[in-house]
Amino acid sequence: MQPLDLQVIEQALSWAADGHPVWLCTVLSTYGSAPRSPGAMLVARGDGAHVGSLSGGCVEEEFLEGLARGGFPAPAQVVRYGETEDERQRLELPCGGSLQVLVERRAATADWIEHLTTLRYTLLGQHRRVRHVDLSSGALALGADQGGEAARLLGERVEIRIGPMLRLLLAGVSPVARVCASFAVELGCEVIVCDPREDKQGVLAAGVPVRPVMPSEFIAEGGCHDTTAVVALTHDPRIDDLAMMEAVRTPAFYIGAMGSQRTSERRAERLRRIGGLSDADIARIRMPIGLNLGSKTPAEIALAVMADVLRVYRGKSRDEL
């Protein structure tokens, strides 16, 4: 399954290659309750054909109606939806929600096609980048991502972070891993499962195949980027420990291993003694893994794991929950 961002960029690239001007919309900020988060995108043609989403459908309809009336002629502009009570009721935005959307009108130029091509490679690649859009001129630039909010408005300039889809790397097959894979697929993640054991081969869940290799080998060969979560859920030290030893050498944003507090303490000691990991390395590993929901069953544990992965990915502290 393709992430929605990649579908939007690939459709924009296809239309531009055919000579169509396109309107690329990106959610910059939301207030109150909003179905999509900052960074969500939609691309449209002048005839109303579109791919992507900005909200639950109400804002998209409003935008497309405005486009049909000849609106949004500027190369780049910020449009606000749901600022008044009447508009919130008309758009059916929930709980007093409102949002700001960057709307870019881009002709099918060579520079625009090159920009879209770079965005596509970024989404399929290993590193995040930042789009810089000048609202006064419409000028575009791409730079390295140094971290920060998904999208923000800085006076007459907009910054939008874009990068690979969230990758869930499951180190080994287990009942909890099966449910995690199902959850992750529904969440739109790229799911990779590695397990060399002969009795664990086949399809894990939701059409995700098991790769017959050690997770540590896959990681060592460049299997992690900065939007990768490495999750070990087997209770087998030969798989879990080796995966942790390699994962801490990567930019993975989340590294975790399943086990009780006592099991986690023993694992930390093994990783120090055998793996040579430092205290800083150990601190990167979430042991025990997941939110403390009192989980008992595989499904409950998987829910706690995936909720914690998303918490960290969204930059939320435990105190904010």
TrEMBL record:
One Pfam family this sequence matches: XdhC_CoxI
Domain XdhC- CoxI: residue ranges: 15-65
Coiled-coil ranges (or none): none
Residue span(s) of domain XdhC Rossmann: 168-309
InterPro entries, sorted: MoCofactor_Util/Proc, XdhC_CoxI, XdhC_Rossmann_dom
PANTHER family: ALDEHYDE OXIDOREDUCTASE MOLYBDENUM COFACTOR ASSEMBLY PROTEIN (PTHR30388), MOLYBDENUM COFACTOR INSERTION CHAPERONE PAOD (PTHR30388:SF4)
Name the UniProt record assigns to this protein: XdhC family protein
Native source organism of the sequence: Alloalcanivorax marinus
Lineage: Bacteria, Pseudomonadati, Pseudomonadota, Gammaproteobacteria, Oceanospirillales
